[in-house]
Design brief:
mainly beta, Immunoglobulin-like, four-stranded antiparallel sheet, about 5% helix
């Protein structure tokens, strides 16, 4: 695809009112971000850092993606409660997920969506700030 039909977009993530999954402290949230490729498979774009004991995290990590005009680019955001081993998400509890498109995020500038897990939409809110580079 021609470079004139795409632009780089920086995504900054935060959450508010996350569901607390810990008993004696607050959840330690972090987010895995995926983008669907041309074959319909989700590929990792990146992840945020873990913020300990915080149900309203504002992540310092920004992720940069290519936004292609007039292309439907599905994205998935998985919000996890970390267990202290950031390199391995297998032991982390899932707070919830958000699925949307990069077009919706870029078009809104500040995208907000309920985080859901197994039909429960009361898991908090994901906020995505999009900025063109």
């Amino acid at each position: 695809m021609s470079d004139s039909l795409k632009m780089k977009v920086s995504l900054r993530l935060s959450c508010k009112n996350l569901k607390n999954l810990d008993t004696f402290s607050k959840s330690d949230p972090w987010i895995i971000v995926k983008l669907q490729d041309n074959n319909g498979h989700y590929q990792n774009v990146g992840k945020t850092e873990t913020i300990n004991n915080n149900l309203n995290p504002e992540f310092a990590t920004t992720l940069t993606v290519d936004f292609f005009f007039e292309k439907h680019q599905k994205m998935a955001f998985k919000v996890l409660d970390g267990d202290g081993k950031e390199e391995d998400a297998s032991d982390d509890d899932i707070i919830g997920t958000v699925e949307t498109t990069l077009g919706e995020i870029v078009g809104s500038g500040k995208y907000e969506s309920k985080i859901s897990h197994k039909g429960n939409d009361n898991r908090g809110t994901l906020i995505i700030q999009a900025e063109t580079l």
